[in-house]
Fold each of these.
Amino acid sequence: MIIPNYRLGPIDLVTLLPYIAMLCIIGFILAIVPLLIWIERVVISLMQDRIGPNRVGPRGLLQTIADGIKLFFKEDIQPRAVDVRIYYLAPVLAMIPALTAGATLPFSTVRFRMEDGSVQTFPMVVGNVNIGILFILAMASLQVYGIILAGWSSNNKYSLLGGLRASAQVISYELAMSLAILSAVLMSGSLNLVHVVEAQMNGFWNWNLFAYPPLGFIITVIYLISMVAETNRAPFDLPEAESELIAGFHTEYSSMKFAMFFMGEYASMLVVSGVAVSLWFGGWTSPLPLLDFIPGFIWFLVKLFALFFVYVWLRASLPRLRYDALMNLGWKRMLPTALVILFLIACWNTLRTPQAQDANPVSEITMAPARAAEGER
Amino acid sequence: MLNDYLPVLVMMAVATVIAVGMVVGSYLLGPKKPSRFKQSSYECGMTPVGTARERFPIKFYLIAMLFIIFDIETIFLYPWAVTFAGSERAVKLFNLAEMAIFVGILFVGYFYILWKGAFDWDEGQREDAEQPSRKIFEPRAPIRFGNESSGEVRLKAAADVSSSPTEESSRLTHV
């Protein structure tokens, strides 16, 4: 699919592309969250052999939209005990990183016919920056602030415990997560997700999932586990364990502020799934070269929804972990495993690199100033 | 170069506007009928006891401190990984040896923390950790429930009392 003109009247579409991508991402997140909640409820009801939502709209499709509108018009209860400023700040702080984290996530490519008639490919990404994955990690960490401030400012024992648990869990699993991301960076040699995806083009056998078998597969599983723990989803949903903590950090929140925590959670689920797709499953590229005619964003969405289905599947099939088991898994199993696998991948990569044939270019560079000094003498 | 970051900043601004708009919107749109019971802290319908500004387990601080140590270590690994992939074999071998030393030192610290029992979350494991001769990969102690465990505590106390009669009174009050 080639867009014939890179200009739309006086507007240069190429410079406008990041802003179009921005609108796509924010609009997609805001629009898709009700659909995701509906999918989750329907899939879980099918797995548990019950009917699920079926009243509002066809097959209950409009149920979550009705819930959202209802929440908007609900009373904004402000309990007396809360720390008012932080209580209002917390949902905002939970929402901003969730919406912003997708900024460095490429989800498609666009091909423009340029002025001189040549066709150029541009990635659809808000910030095509060379620290892409670090930005996403930073935003994922910032989300903890919203949760822990919500738990603390509520001045409710359940909220406090939920906030503490959430923060301890998120930071514990972030280590395994960043080590897993690191091994993908090692495979591709760049922090820019566009380059990481481009290194996995032309067929599913080039995906990082199948690189360095079976190390790539193991590290992908480690990433997927820590991704679920990072977003506080079942079976790692201890911060909001209904049976012991009511709702955890958002017990005292009502109306839209409550819904914002939900939206933040689903948005961050989308973002970490998108990172998983880009790092391990080939991003927007098609799994077989003969399917290249299908546009990139469709492949991206297919992979994204497949991962979301895994989330729902896990929630329907696994019981909640005990807290000490959760910490054991994070610190005693996944962190050392990820570190060892990272090191093994580095060793394998070194073995696979062919021996340099001719003169060593690096030593040339280091020698150059010395030679210049000699000439001066 | 910096132009690449401009859309990211714009996106952050748009996200802020959306988030603030949602809070303000629901604040303005919803009805306001405050009452004493509605505004009390939620504690399963009971009258709330005290505030939540109390002490909480030290373990959370410990996890946060350990996180800082290991997170900085992963941050050190990032530039290494980026330069590693592009270099040639001799340079890679050198980098690999360097990183082996770095990760080796890190693992010494890791196993020390593990041996000290900082990763053992529950009380049963923590008691074991105070003994210096504890093996690192010891199987978990079986979990005890309710009456069983209280029975165990009493037995242990009785044994202690028989060995040191001077501490008798304090032990008994503790039980």
Amino acid sequence: MQGWTSAKTIERPKTRSTRWVTPAKVVVFLLALAPVAALVWRGLAGRLGANPIEAVTHATGDWTLRLLLVTLAVTPLREVLRLPELIRFRRMLGLFAFFYGCLHLLTYVWLDQFFDWGSIVKDVAKRPFITAGFAGFVLLVPLAVTSTAGWIRRLGGRRWRLLHRLIYGTAALGVVHYWWLVKSDIRMPALYGAILTLLLAYRVVRR
Amino acid sequence: MLIRRPPPIRYSEVAPKSVYLNRRRFLAAAGLGALLPASAATKLEGIRKSPLSTTGEKVTPYEVTTTYNNFYEFGTDKAQPSKLAKDFRTRPWTITVEGAAAKPRTFDIDEVLKLAPPEERVYRMRCVEGWSIVVPWIGFPLKALLDRVEPTSKAQYVAFQTFYDRNQMPQGRFAGINLPYVEGLRMDEAMHPLAILSVGIYGEVLPNQNGAPVRLVVPWKYGFKSIKSIVRIRLVEKRPPTTWNISNPQEYGFYSNVNPQVDHPRWSQAKERRLGEFFKRETLMFNGYGEQVARLYAGLDLRKNY
């Protein structure tokens, strides 16, 4: 295990087995695929409601944000629960956040705008909420690219870790993107914002 | 404890279908078909098709119009109102028409339904959020009600108010906007023949989530101007406050005429998605009703007066 990819290495009690990790990863992998499977199922069954494109846009956006928060919860959870093995789920969760982010962007570019590049460029430049969402996505791209063991080696642990702090920016931009989108009922973006604040505060306090 | 349950109502005690259908036929024959309250009938009768209907548009499916609603008193999610407004009580119901009028008074809903012969008006409805539908509304010109109270020369604007009851509308607390919902029109807009009070859609009594028992429909303005479940109408001298303008004055103006050239600060208004269609379509100036209403705004800078 590459303990140096996380800020803090935790001593694991020697006696405990870690054999549960691999099957658990399979379960988490399938769970993370469930939202997209549900969308495809609802789409085929014609159960996406009156505005299917909006339903897909919202679902993929929601899951991007949720998986970003789950990814950010890995470090606090492994320390609080004393389960250092949780680090082995982090890359997969982060990549799933990226996967849903890609679907979200693709939904916007393809289904919503239908490749109307003029209108897309105008949106990204002029609409603060789209600017924020797009910026968040852009920050996520280098993280997805450098998620492999090879890239960790090439960059070196310190620089790799520094680079991967960009996820804080992505998550914050994701919350802002959602907050600026809603018209008046801010309960959901406020909830995501509160969870993100807690997860980031943990990192500050822990030092 | 012994609980004595009343015996269930037997089918034999319920009016047979032939009898209640005859009752309706009787009322329809008496020209009262459209007056049946929601509890007695959902089908409206004696409706004539209006020549002011929009033609050449495919009517949006009933399912869509009645399950995709912005009615924040019943939740901010569009699927919520159709579920949470099911038990909303629309009887008894009164509409108070007051202010600058010679004969201000309160109307019972059943009287409002009799004010003018019901007509079917097919209109495009464009939401400020960028989607649109085509709805066969049933109603009559707002003017018919306003004329009853004889507005005075001081009546420059009309202010509308939606019913609000925290008990029946518990989701209202989370709406993020001030409730009760209020809207307003300039007097000439309110008296325009295209501005109607609607009491039904698709030949049926207006479903609760669509603004029962009576709502405004102003087809050349963004949907939020078409205030639902009206209980109060006030004729006033000064421009009345309107809910979304109070909530966010940079984004929602008093006029809120559909205008593809003036973007919402957060999104373009140039195009819209007609629900049920894949490709977006161009949004029309005044939602396509410019020929009838553009003269109301002659000389008005529509960029400033959005």
